[in-house]
Amino acid sequence: MDKNKLGALLILVTPGIIELIKDKRGLSYDSAAETLYNSRLYALLEDHETGLWRLSAHTLYSLLDEELTTGKITFPEEQ
Fold it and tell me: What is the chain's pLDDT, residue by residue, as a tens digit (79 residues)?
């Protein structure tokens, strides 16, 4: 997948993750976006090879929550 397609997918999924961060952590939109964009998860999400771009916003939020809580990310098993 080229970078343009991956970028388009990220544009579609990131608002959902930001909304979940807002709702579940009680943050403003800007703080929620900053939390996501500064996370290790987002860096991994930008890497096509990880395949994280295939996951739903809810699953990605769960991974982010784990990162913020424990400092670790446990990748889901492939189905």
Answer: 566 676 677 778 899 999 999 999 999 999 999 999 999 999 999 888 888 888 999 999 999 999 999 999 998 875 3
CB-facing half-sphere around the CA of 18: CA atoms within 13 A: 15
Query: CB-hemisphere CA count at 13 Å for 35?
Result: 23
Alpha-carbon distances of 69 from 24, 62, 65, 79, rounded to whole Å: 13, 10, 6, 26
* Domains in the chain: boundaries: 3-70
